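Internal ticket #5521
Category: modeling
Description: The requester needs a full-assembly model to guide mutagenesis choices. All entity lines are attached below as received. Residue total reported by intake: 671.
Assigned to: D.W.
Attached entities:
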Amino acid sequence: MNVTQAPAETRRSFLGRCGAAAGAGISAPYVITSKALGDATTPPASDRIVMAGIGIGNMGTGDQNAFLGRPEVQYVAVCDVRQKWRDDAKGRVDARYGNGDCRAAIDFRELLARDDIDAVHVATPDHWHAPITIAACRSGKDVYLQKPETLTLREGPLMIAAARRYGRVFSGGSQRVLGDYRGIVDPIWAGEIGEVVAVDVSVGGPSQPCLLAGEAAPADIDWDLWLGPAPWQPYNPGRCSGSYSTGGNTWRSYIDYSGGSLTDWGAHHFGGAIFAADLREEQPVKVTFHPADGAAAAYVSLRYPRGQELHHNRPAPLRPQEGPQVAHGNAIVITGDGRPREPKPVPLYRDGETSIYGDFLACVKTRERPFRDIELAVNTMTAPHMIGIAYRLERSLEWDRPTQAFVNDAEANRLLDRARREPWII
Amino acid sequence: MPHDAATLDAAFTALSSWDWGADAKPLTTLDAAVVAAHGDQALRADLERRLTALLGSGASRGAKEEACRRLARVGSAASVPSLARLLPDRDLSHMARFALERIDAADAAAALREAVASLTGPLRIGMVSSLAARRDTESVPQLAGLLTADAATAAAAAVALGSIATSAAAAALQAGQGDPCSSTGAAIADARLACAESLRASGHRDAALGILRSLAETAAGKPAARQIELAATRGILACLDTAAS
């Protein structure tokens, strides 16, 4: 491809000079498998999407089963630092295909180095999400990533940049946003409560330090690789348990690996609420910390650019009943202004798919952005992350989206990210 | 009060013999004091002095790591010497960086640069990682020199230069490009793409186009560099779309 060119070039003239393969690789909707990116002498690509899984614990098993059940997927490899998860995951794949061909790896880099793998699904603990998925994008893999997609505010823009740079389909993984919350999504998008003015989300709080005593690590876990970029701490089964509890003795409870219930279940509840309120493309501008007052616990409120407010655990007596509401149990209450508003079509999964897994696979074929595109996921996750920071600092903040930093607050900006343990870098 | 002298004395006394599995009370006391130190320079300085003193004591690894976590919140230039002494320590290097990376003082960056010059292997990569996070422009010449080191170090240096994304960083990356099919070459190419994106976002479209066209030409016809070629092509299109809008 000749790229030397006179100054006044347009998209049309540039594409006209490019070879057909390069142009098609950029934008044409066809199945872009690794083999299809080859030159004219490469045999035609299979219609199957070749997939591998990284992190096959509790949620990873669910994701694996979902993809294994899809006829358009050829599942070829698994990766987990625990031998039992690795063996079980390989066993499921081998049983599906009736052979022993599935590769079981300890180190995700082995899978990312393979040219035959088109896409990976990732369900490791949260502290690994950014390093693995950024590397996956650089390796030309599409990514399906379990929620919460980020552990820190700084990771999100880097993940988005990697996805866009390499033209990757990158889906976040809350299957509940479109699945569980239609009871509030549909009436709001139909205009039944007018414009949204307030959102109340009730979910647990942020993660806590892990101070568990150390034990000898069992032989069937690569402890150093499990920790990865997180600070070294001695092995304890309570540090790395993948149980869904966030009350202690699970990695979801602890600040080095997770944002706690605030981001874990919060990814679902905030995800559903922010989607229902049509705020997925926005980020908060103001974070208000409300200190505890008598019997009322502290809570945090966010304000969005168009004035909507989102409250975390605002006590019920403090919620004004000033407009029509829709609710998802006690987890989400959304208040509108009651004024007439035109209905908007609800964004759905692609191609009539009924699951987020199908949506991802459809987008791998068409190269469209998925329902929970990484940019929408990152925007959504800014809410619980900022709330968590406000709780740690016990004060209010302002957020500047263009610079991705808190305004005039060096102390708060120290919490945007954390140093990664060598040799991991993003 | 979480921060009167007697309360802090008790907390630090407990922390001096603390280790993983012990009572969390001294740490929760310190965390409350850290919160209270916002806007209280005297309290912040007192906490910093006590925390850095613990780093030089015979306290456990766990206790020193917890001290580093809090220095990440309240540390200043005054903490740098104590933290810098831990950078060569295989057990404590990361947590020393955990604090240094967050301390907004020129001395912190200088300490990391000094460590880059004296360390090797993964510890050196850790220093590079923290310089990348700080977007430390003064480290560009040093990082440029690492582009010819071992593959892992060179890749880390490339990431750091891509994060810094100044014209000097872009020039260093271009000079060190090499074969984009190699692991180092691919890392350098990715960093150059990042530089181009930064230039385009800041309005320097022609400079971005220069990098992207160079990359596309370097990667052209090399199947192993296909992702880079396509990424560069996407970048060129984005620049052209910017010009048209």
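Resolution: model delivered.
Comment from assignee: Residues 1-25 of chain A form one domain.
Ticket closed.
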